Protein: DUF397 domain-containing protein
Organism: Streptomyces hazeniae
Amino acid sequence: MYPLNSIEWQKSSFSGGGEGAECLEVSQGGHGYHALRESDDQDIHVHASPAALAGLIRHVKRPR
């Protein structure tokens, strides 16, 4: 899709606090898509459109 080694990753402000503990990183990739990865396994990426990422965030934040 686009070279992931050339983009900057932003770590979630709600990460577990420890080194690599429960961290999710997001990056604005090319072609209007975003990439998500877990800090513990940086080789696995999920690519999402802005609308799909917004839907995921709404779902995760939904009260249980």
Observations:
- The CA atoms of residues 19 and 53 lie 25 Å apart.
